[in-house]
Design brief:
By secondary structure, the chain is α+β, with helices and mostly antiparallel strands.
Length: 165
């Protein structure tokens, strides 16, 4: 069976639809990461954070980033929050991370976290949190206070990872 030249050219330059789906998803994730980075940079610039040890840009790629004010109200959540908890950023802004806790959340770990926050020191803990649909997940939290260039605490930042995924 003989094919014409246009069929040959068409077949050589075609890309399966599935590849475009992956590409579009990658572009969406890249765009979300850039948007997250811009939002965090805006907060950072506004409060003149000392970002030296935070590595925010690198950590945004693999972890959920939460930023709270000194009253522990959430002022920023990266796009990964929806995947991890089921909540969109708009649903959690202005609330505290307590919204992710429930009966299975360790009171001992919560006490240790509160103590670290009170002392304004970094901490790393794994805690049982709750998704929007009520299912639990193991959340590894690496958190630290954020200081401005004058040495004054302005926020707390948490890098979170779902260990049960």
């Amino acid at each position: 069976m003989k094919t014409n030249k246009s069929d040959e050219i068409s077949n050589r330059n075609s890309v399966p639809i599935l590849a475009w789906d992956f590409h579009c998803e990658y572009v969406r994730e890249l765009k979300a990461a850039l948007t997250d980075l811009k939002k965090v940079k805006k907060i950072s610039n506004q409060f003149t954070w000392n970002e030296k040890n935070l590595a925010i840009e690198e950590r945004l790629k693999n972890e959920v980033v939460l930023v709270t004010d000194l009253d522990l109200k959430i002022v920023f959540a990266s796009n990964g929050i929806k995947r991890m908890t089921g909540y969109a950023e708009e649903e959690i802004l202005g609330k505290t991370p307590k919204m992710f806790q429930g009966p299975a959340t360790s009171k001992t770990v919560l006490k240790e976290i509160r103590e670290a926050i009170k002392l304004q020191v970094p901490f790393e803990k794994t805690i049982e949190n709750y998704r929007k649909d009520g299912r639990t997940y193991q959340c590894k939290i690496t958190s630290s206070p954020v200081f401005n260039l004058k040495g004054q605490i302005t926020h707390f930042i948490a890098f979170e990872r779902d260990l049960s995924a």
